[in-house]
Amino acid sequence: MKAVFAGVILLSFVAGVFFAPYFSLSSAAILALFAIFFVISLSVIPQKWLWISMIAIGFFFLGVLRYQQYSLSLQNILYPKDNNLKITGQVVEPPEDTKKATKVVLYDQAKKAKILLILRPFSGIKYGDYITSEGKVVVSETDELKNPLLAKGISAQMVFPKVEKASVIKNMSLSMKAKNLLYSVRNRFEETINSIFPEPEASFLAGLLLGIKRNLPDWLMEDLQKTGTTHLIALSGFNITVIIEALRLVFSKKSAKMSFFMPLTAIAGFVVMTGSQSSAVRAGLMGAMMLLAYRIGRQSSASMAIILAAAVMIAANPFILRFDLGFQLSFAAFIGIIYLAPVIKQVLPFKNESVKELLAMSLGAQIMAYPVILYYFGNFSVISLLINLIVLPFIPFVMLIGFVSAFLGMIWTGFGYVISWTVLFSLRAIIYLIHFSASLPFASLEGLNFSPLNLAIYYVTVLEALFIYKAVRRRSLIFGK
Fold first, then answer.
1. Same domain (yes/no): 123, 253
2. How many other CB atoms are found less than 10 A from the CB of residue 292?
3. Would you say residue 58 lies in a domain?
4. Is residue 153 part of a domain?
5. Both 147 and 8 in a single domain?
6. What residue numbers bound the domain in which 380 lies?
7. Any idea which of 16-25, 163-172, 428-437 has the lowest mean pLDDT?
8. Minimal CA–CA distance to 362: which of 451, 249, 254, 209?
9. How far is CA 417 from the centre of its chain?
10. 320-363 pLDDT per residue, tens
């Protein structure tokens, strides 16, 4: 009963955040609406559920209020339009280099706001630098462009401004110094991968381990999109779920402690190697909570752990629920593994338990996560399910050996080079399979409009199918059929 009570409250808060954009109400109106719900519930809700229902409604509107408060705090930061401005601040996120530009997040100390700077490629700006940026501030007019920035706490942006360094890595906080160290390790790790692996295998492995896409060839990026495998190189919970389940499966045969601590160590290594980026930290936190729940040994504990972790992160930044693809993929993949994987494992025809568990985990994560990809990109890969079933079982091996190769290569390149040959064939085989599959006729349907309503219908259908299957199976067990 306590678990149900806590779950209802947390889900109500999350639901309030999700539906908040549809409430154009003041705080007073929301409180009045809550009072109306309270009066109605007194006559229609059974006594034992009354207080749970009322608290749930209260937390729903608390979610609405938190979303609106967070949104207003960001949107009230105003900059004059069409005027050249000088903004001085510190680079508070590691610069993101791409082939066309460098993205830098600058903290405007005067406004207490974050500004996204789009600079020329390889501009030389580093994390922690104090810089002065001069140019026109652009505030996105459409929600499609504005909301993903707000989800990262960014209020506006400057496109190709003039930039001058005021000072280099001065007065960094302790947390920034720690992050700067992690980012330096990440850069060194990436350089090692590039030195011991050929292309495009090096870029693909950097995507798998670090979420770095800047060096990926255009043709490979297009192939990943056509085959529905872009999640492999995204900093989301999808990769972490693969790591957790594979290591847990391997070490569970040896000891319960190792099946807990080895995946936990792998999660920590993943977060560190990615430079402790926010998306990786969130995915790592949810993965650690799921491991802890598995340690307790109950599915209800696993689901409660995931919901609690998600609710805390959403309370801190409500925009990630609706506009952060990495968070959504993480949450969907974890839910797929907790609820769908056990059911899928029961119906798979394979005799080998390890194979069944890996395939069930992959299918569960895909079924829940792929519609999110379809909603954002509008591309439906006809062959995605098949390709993922073939590729995903090899990903833990590739990531583990690739990580060991690069780690040893940081000590001495010769070590990494020798071990890299054990995984090079697998990398080439995966890339070839993805490329071959993407070249097939009608491999992908593009330009589809998958609306939020379609997304809701899909998940409701999956939920109903899950309930029906469990009800039929329960009846079969009772009557011995």
1. no
2. 15
3. yes
4. yes
5. no
6. 191-450
7. 163-172
8. 249
9. 31
10. 887 777 778 777 877 787 778 888 888 777 777 767 777 787 78
Residues whose CB falls within 8 Å of the CB of residue 232, separated by 6 or more in sequence, listed in order: 207, 208, 224, 238, 239, 391, 395
Burial of 453 (0-12, 13-18, 19+ CB in 10 A): exposed
Say yes or no: 379 and 442 in one domain: yes
Give residue 104's pLDDT.
Answer: 84
**If DSSP codes are grouped into helix, strand and coil, which group holds residue 89?**
strand
Residues 219 and 303 both lie in one domain = yes
d(CA 178, CA 330): 25
Report the alpha-carbon distance of residue 274 to residue 65 in Å, rounded.
34
For residues 67 and 95, membership in a common domain is answered with no
How long a stretch of residues is the chain? 481
278 and 211 in a common domain: yes
Query: Could you give the CA distance from residue 438 to residue 226 in angstroms, rounded to a whole number?
Result: 6
In terms of Cβ atoms closer than 10 Å to its own Cβ (0-12, 13-18, 19+), residue 168 is exposed
171-197 average pLDDT score: 78
36-83: pLDDT as tens digits: 666 665 555 555 566 667 777 778 888 888 888 887 777 666 676 667
Same structural domain, 218 and 241: yes
